[in-house]
């Protein structure tokens, strides 16, 4: 009913470092947060369990349910959770888990408890906690489950003792005064909301007003034995200690055919006197007084929303405290408003009071105005007219309270409201309800309840994990609107709590649960301490000045990294003084002053920033994060060299390029490049003097690595006073130095370099041979016509690897993710290798493939985590089988039960290379492709691999059936998902049959249908079936998830059926031997049940259509099958995909006037298209004269299809109206199917 009602979004935290290096841990590893200031625990939402959470909190705060009932049951009656897995133990798991949950909510120091164990005890193992349900439905089902669980214990009457009440319905004969009555038990009262102003009026309508049988609507009296006038009424005969009231806020609009929520104003009192509604009224008033203590609230509409609950803390377990400042502001504002202007009071109560005091039934409207003047000292026009209009109009606007005479001159109170208004209990007036919003319910106007000032008067809003204190008057906000009251819980006012229960959450909790919670709290405190230490611990890297040298503008380690750095772990909340002391203790040999400075690794080296001063400052306060680098020195010099610190002296690495003096490869001038370090405060004049002392120009590249001529910009004379930082030069920027000779090779116009004389570019080559510790890289100048072998040889020379590699090396492009791609043939040019200038190549061991060889990746299975990717070079003329053998040899596999598949776009095993004798070139296997070695031999030519399904009668769970059998059935269907990516478990043809996946078989296309049936019986799940001969099996193809074509003739070859490569077969077991001929049609007939919209189980009917396939022939065959006259049956064909029945009649049989002969009628043509397996419904007119063949299941199916079509139509209309399709007009998600709520309970009788 409530599609998507409880769906919630979940955010996930990454394990990666983020921000300032702060370590983040998964939330699952952190202990739960402690309780907040309210000292009450919430309940975690499992995804859709807000309705369950609200009801559980209500039961928890029902002290008599919690303590006197539930906690009074010990392990000797309920058993223990430790014994729950023992086969013979009768453990009442639901009450035990409920006890444990309540103990956690009362005693465990955590912000929110989990209901996972409780819902598992309900038997919810298929994500039921993610589904949406109604809290009123849950209330009844949970009480029923508890009653069943407590059978045979002292708590067997727990629910009846606390919630059971009796309603008596009476009919009184007006003639003989005979009273006919009928009792009804209830655990909750359901009251109407539509058209009713509040709870009192609803109860009045139900239990005070009478219904009269008169005129044409008379009652047959059992005593008089005739139709007589009578009156019907209902009364509350027995009141329970706790009264649960469900409000019918959800209704159905039959005109619009949709559900809607009643959001009109519906008042209910904090305290109510039920005397007027009871059968016995002679007892003391205290027996009828009830106090509200819980309000379950629904926020949202019919198809979406959320539940939370307002609860009165009867035992004062929580800490109720609102912000005093906020209260002071509210009081101050209220006082100021009162002083500035008197707000006119509501005239409704005043008019009701005047009319209730009148003895006469009606008084003139003018006289009412005069009495108002006498009582208030001001006339209606002066006090109320401006806000409420004329008096007569105001009375007409409240017809549910005031009754005007036909001429409109006299007025009186309606009898119902007059009696309600006069009822008084402990000085309390039951105010008459109103439908208008200007009638405000005010809890402050109610007289104080006995003891309300001292005990149990505080309210809390429990919203899943969140608990907040609220005021009693906040309940008024839940009278109306989309967020409004849905269930009300009242308790008898005379129920008193013992003093020892006040503020004592341990009261009446069994000793074993107290011990368990105490141990759990100790463990929580330990985990919180460990987590706190882990969360606040930071790792610092201390760089020792004695292990560093200052050169090239930055600090560089003189030793290895491990010897130069000391790691220190410390709490971020400690001070710099603590850090300094910890450093002294670790560096015992340190002499002299110790200065700690923040450091940062830069491309040029390590650079120092601010000094960490102020021993009283915390590490977190000065910005020390996890992984920070700290330099330990004397604060002046390192190795005798003065070190400049701070961001203004950061070193910047610049790529300085010059045009070389020689050509490469016969074409193009190339660059020579050097990396130099300068301080970011260096001026361009100083840079020019250092780089071009003999004169020349300096150019800046404005586009990073792209060194085309158009991207170079000349520095002008006026820029010479700018610094390296202000001009925009950063680490890795390139500057080009051109002297007077170099300028002859380029064209400089308007301060920009417009063109190089030659086409110059370069490639990067990185050493991946692993002969050195660090992988070096060099830049090689090249053109698009440069041969790859020349690039490789120059890279080997510059990397000085001639002796180590020789000719046993190759160049491989490096992909964007760092993966080495397939080697480039050495006789290719840069253009043929499809390399972009500036690309990165890896120099690797191994010979490069020739132009006739293929470099391939391969893996065993498509799971990259389980099988590493391997490489191989094969001739493109090699066959698939030869390639497979080479791969098997390299991967260490043996045998011939393997085949190759391509890796598809989603990194899974895709198309099989089935032609094992074809060459790789013929199958378009390309350089760099990835192949997957897959277990299993491909079927040979002419063989088929066929998935087999088992068609059997539907195994709907019957009363007493083992739950494990049902689970097994689900398991079979889940295994069917593995057949193919799109193969879900087929939907049944009709409710009487199920399809279960059995497995795959491999069979020759030349084999017979009989061979297929015999081989299918060898599958594991079919071996338990007792089948004497293959003729006791029926074979169907599977078409659109349903049995499709019936395969006849057991001796026929499979290839003759033209089944195709993707065919699936389902096998149906038979009770008797069958061998259908080509002219025999198999139908499934089912007889309608008289008086019900349902059918008996279907039966197979074989119909010979060799002579004729007409309506009359079919009727005769069906009538003969059921031994009925032909004219006393009606038949219809069922179309399951449309949930429709088409009656089969003789309307198509007519005579053509032109040709003077009958048209050939065949049920195998339109509109029936009768075929094997079709369902034929039969009506026996002797017992059932209705010709409606549809069932309730058809109505439901059609309604779902209609709703889906309506949503699609609305979606199309929205797209037409708004071509841009904004976010707020996105089509609604289809509503989830409704699933019945259930709780599974063991048998304890």
UniProtKB/TrEMBL annotation:
Catalytic reaction list: Thiol-dependent hydrolysis of ester, thioester, amide, peptide and isopeptide bonds formed by the C-terminal Gly of ubiquitin (a 76-residue protein attached to proteins as an intracellular targeting signal)
Biological-process GO terms, alphabetical: protein deubiquitination; proteolysis
GO cellular component: cytosol; nucleus
E.C. number(s) listed in UniProt: 3.4.19.12
UniProt xrefs under PROSITE patterns: USP_1, USP_2, USP_3
Enzyme type, top EC level: hydrolase
Region (Disordered): 19-41
GO molecular function annotation: cysteine-type deubiquitinase activity
Domain USP, first and last residues per copy: 41-493
Keyword terms, alphabetized: Hydrolase, Protease, Thiol protease, Ubl conjugation pathway
Family the entry assigns: Belongs to the peptidase C19 family.
Protein name: Ubiquitin carboxyl-terminal hydrolase 40
The species this protein was found in: Tichodroma muraria
Gene coding for it: Usp40
